[in-house]
């Protein structure tokens, strides 16, 4: 076999990506995260952030950070992994406060949601088990399942009948089944049917893992997420994962579950053990964000109203929306070049809306992914709708 250079390996693949309109760019932000941003030098209204409650640039959190930095008990960096000397009192208090908020036994912090999902699946799922994952689960859940030693089967999106068939099969074969689902699906914005999933899990002695990255904060009483939104509670066989880079406006993630599950992660999860703890300052910021989130009923109502306004307006223009009650509102456009040209047209009118293309979404389902935040105004949503109408009229080709 001929030895190829690194250059050879990637030059052609990169070129192909470009030709297929799939090349990814990193927009450069010159301003804080907020609705009005300067991105790539352009002033625009940002409609693709996950900062659902407007906390990423919140004055109360900024002030708390300034005070914390002046406090001699806190450094910026964490210095080491949690099991070495990186586990600061701020991390510890935050874990307790998150557990109290959710009414679970324990919570464990992670540096990112991606790592939390890898850790949970690699550690909890073992050889002989079967992971049953929704087809549209986040990439980190897919990778976590692939890297575990368990079998991995996917069921069609939200299809609880198909899920039940796979559960029956696992039960007959005496395999431990582990149902894995997003709470709010990240590219579609729809909700997992958690009541039915919980009922199936009980009937077939399955465990349930819910990645609620987009549910904690905007959904549920005091922002307690999708399970709470449906009036459900986590039992000992349920594990929830939340991220802190979305509605919390910070970064990192947490896993919420029973004391035994959290101890198992601390002892056995390689993505937990062998990585530096997130900064002490991040823990300070998240603690403040958690206080704000619990009191943010007005912001949740504002977000809800903007979602309704957007959906009503988009339907009136004839845009193809998803059945999404959340801040994630995709507009289906089909091919990648159309999605890119709509995104570009919106940019020229001062709106930043990301075009989402394969492989992030299935082929033929390229879309604009509009995300709304409580920090948007009703006027901004109205202006976005007018710009989308002009896209539709010119078809942006
Ligand atoms: N799960 C879901 C559903 C997500 O949308 C994301 C972020 N896109 C993650 C996990 C990963 O979280 P993080 O960005 O903290 O790595």
From TrEMBL:
E.C. no: 2.3.1.47
Taxonomy, superkingdom: Bacteria
Keyword entries, A-Z: Acyltransferase, Biotin biosynthesis, Pyridoxal phosphate, Transferase
Domain Aminotransferase class I/classII large residues, every copy: 43-388
Residues the entry annotates as binding pyridoxal 5'-phosphate: 113-114, 186, 214, 243
General function of this protein: Catalyzes the decarboxylative condensation of pimeloyl-[acyl-carrier protein] and L-alanine to produce 8-amino-7-oxononanoate (AON), [acyl-carrier protein], and carbon dioxide.
Protein name in the entry: 8-amino-7-oxononanoate synthase
């Amino acid at each position: 076999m001929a030895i190829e250079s690194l250059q050879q390996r990637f030059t052609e693949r990169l070129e192909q990506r470009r030709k297929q309109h799939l090349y990814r760019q990193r927009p450069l932000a010159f301003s804080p995260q907020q609705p009005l941003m300067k991105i790539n030098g352009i002033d625009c209204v940002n409609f693709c952030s996950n900062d659902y409650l407007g906390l990423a640039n919140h004055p109360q959190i900024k002030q708390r950070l300034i005070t914390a930095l002046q406090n001699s008990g806190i450094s910026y960096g964490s210095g080491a992994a949690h099991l070495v000397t990186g586990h600061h009192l701020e991390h510890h208090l935050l874990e307790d406060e998150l557990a109290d908020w959710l009414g679970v036994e324990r919570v464990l912090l992670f540096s990112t949601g991606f790592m939390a999902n890898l850790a949970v699946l690699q550690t909890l799922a073992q050889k002989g088990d079967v992971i049953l994952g929704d087809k549209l689960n986040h990439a980190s859940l897919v990778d976590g399942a692939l890297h575990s030693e368990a079998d991995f089967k996917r069921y069609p999106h939200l299809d609880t009948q198909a899920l039940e068939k796979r559960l029956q099969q696992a039960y007959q074969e005496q395999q431990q089944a582990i149902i894995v689902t997003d709470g709010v699906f990240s590219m579609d914005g729809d909700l997992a049917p958690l009541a039915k999933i919980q009922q199936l899990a009980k009937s077939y002695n399955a465990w349930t893992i819910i990645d609620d990255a987009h549910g904690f904060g905007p959904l549920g009483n005091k922002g307690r997420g999708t399970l709470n939104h449906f009036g459900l509670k986590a039992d000992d066989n349920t594990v929830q994962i939340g991220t802190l880079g979305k509605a919390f406006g910070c970064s990192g993630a947490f896993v919420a579950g029973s004391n035994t599950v959290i101890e198992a992660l601390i002892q056995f999860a390689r993505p937990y053990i062998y990585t530096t703890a997130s900064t002490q300052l991040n823990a300070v910021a998240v603690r403040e964000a958690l206080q704000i989130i619990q009191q943010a009923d007005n912001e949740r109502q504002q977000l809800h109203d903007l979602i309704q306004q957007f959906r009503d307006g988009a339907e009136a223009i004839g845009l193809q929306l998803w059945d999404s009650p959340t801040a994630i509102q995709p507009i289906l456009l089909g091919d990648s070049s159309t999605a890119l040209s709509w995104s570009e047209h919106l940019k020229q009118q001062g709106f930043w809306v990301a075009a989402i293309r394969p492989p992030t979404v299935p082929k033929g389902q390229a879309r604009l992914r509009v995300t709304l935040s409580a920090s948007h105004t009703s006027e901004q949503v109205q202006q976005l709708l007018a710009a989308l109408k002009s896209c539709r009229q010119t078809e942006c080709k």
